[in-house]
Amino acid sequence: MLKNMSGTTVYRCVLENTHKKYTCVPCVCCDFCERVLHEYTCVVMFMWFGTQVYSYACYLREIRLTEHIVDYILIFCRKLVFETESGVGLYHFQMLDLQPSKWINDGVINGFASMLNYEEKKRISGSNIFGDDDKVKGIKPRLFGQTNCFDEDMLLNRKHKEAGRVEKFKSALFLVVDQKESLMSLSEYCVIFFPILEHNHFYLVSFMERNAITVIDNIDASKSPIHLMNNDNFFQKSTPYKVKDIFSKYLKMVNHHKSAEIEIADVVRLEFEWKTVKNTVDCGVFVRRHMETWFGVTADKWDSGFPLTHKEKKACLTNLRKKYAIKLVTSEANKHRSRVLDEAAEHEKTHGIGCF
Fold first, then answer.
1. How crowded is the C-beta side of 353, counted as CA atoms within 13 Å?
2. Buried b / exposed e across 207-240, counting CB within 10 Å, b at 16+?
3. CB of 197 within 8 A of CB of 204?
4. Alpha carbon distance 107, 117 (integer Å)
5. Which residues pair with 24 in a beta bridge?
6. Which InterPro entries does UniProt cross-reference here (predicted)?
7. What is the C-alpha to C-alpha distance for residues 190 and 297, in angstroms, rounded to an integer?
8. Contacts 24+ apart (CB under 8 A), 53-62
9. Same domain, yes or no: 26 and 65
10. What is the pLDDT of residues 285-310, one digit of tens each?
């Protein structure tokens, strides 16, 4: 039993510390665990504040000062700090978006999705670490798509006909499944997530094996820019129904056993207690947390770890930003893990940890 950063008691945190590597049971409390945040404070400081020089370097270049110094700074900030074997990468300066109250770019969302796909394989192939209470999570893996699976060009560009849209989706999906043709039927998965960017707002459209199509949006429906509207004309559909249209046609093409049911299913907005009204900058944090914790259960059985009061929720979102910076860097999926940890430790020696 531990106390999280807001002082609330949390349970079921299993940590294994082996050569500065934490392997956490994927439960709610691990995202608020003080041990992890304390151990990797230097990583957070390096990711957040070690890149402050990037904007200064751009300023120096603007006024044409010492080019070789500027080039050195820019090269440092353009180093990859996260990259998977499939080539999904994040540069150092992109991690600035994980600072509190900053809108997160789609590169960070895609990097996180790629990392979750790696972890999902381990969850399924490893021993049963969940126990009887967690059997609802199932034995089939989930799949986490990327924002380019359904991008603006595919959804809005009238030059793409039906077959062209499906082909574009197929090409994007091929990269998500690590270019493994055997996984393209999608019969392997129980839940499939697609992060969608619309009106500068991230949300999820998820497809479940039991025919449910769900929109998971942190903003309350009364204030959300995301609407649910079907139409025979593709370009008159709202985005979630466009996503459903393309996805269901793809499932039919690959003879998925649920294609007929998904084709006639309605898109439903998932309701839950921790929705926001005015928070428009933390949608990327909500999307990552929702991907991480949702296994297709009903909302009343879904434990996301989010408190309900505004003040506690804001503190929780800040903690998650720190944790996700740490999680991306220290993940076994990250090819640059050892180098970045060494650089973060060196940054700590030179500049100290400070506070955040």
1. 11
2. bbbeebbbbbbbbeeeebebeeeeeeebeebbbb
3. no
4. 15
5. 15
6. Papain-like_cys_pep_sf
7. 11
8. 53/77, 54/92, 54/93, 54/96
9. no
10. 999 999 999 998 888 889 899 999 99
At position 253, the amino acid (one-letter code) is: M
Tell me: do 63 and 91 sit in the same domain: yes
73 and 53 in one domain?
yes
According to the model, what pLDDT value does residue 36 have?
A: 52
3-state DSSP call for residue 322?
helix
Range of the domain at 113: 105-305
**Rounded to 5°, angle at Cα 12 from 345 and 15:** 30
Q: What stretches of the chain show up as alpha helix (H) in DSSP? A: 34-39, 41-49, 52-62, 67-77, 106-125, 152-156, 162-176, 239-253, 259-264, 283-293, 310-330, 337-351
**Residues contacting 77, CB < 8 A, separation 6+:** 51, 53, 54, 57, 91, 92, 93
> Is 341 in contact with 349 (CB distance < 8 Å)?
no
- Our count of domains for the chain comes to 3
Residue 301, Cβ density class (10 Å: 0-12 exposed, 13-18 middle, ≥19 buried): exposed
Average pLDDT over residues 247-256: 97
State pLDDT tens for residues 8-54: 333 333 323 333 333 333 333 444 455 555 556 666 556 555 544 44
Q: Are 323 and 14 in contact (CB under 8 A)?
A: no
Which amino acid belongs to residue 73?
I
Same domain, 14 and 159: no
Q: Determine the straight-line distance between the first and last CA of the chain, rounded to whole angstroms.
A: 25
Residues in the chain: 356
Dist. CA 293–CA 330, nearest whole Å: 19
Claim to verify: residue 158 and residue 290 sit in the same structural domain: yes
Q: What is residue 2's predicted lDDT score, i.e. its pLDDT?
A: 33
Burial label, 249 (beta-carbon count in 10 A; 0-12, 13-18, 19+)? middle
Which residues face 208 on adjacent strands?
A: 191
Report the predicted TM-score, pTM, of the whole model to 2 decimal places: 0.80
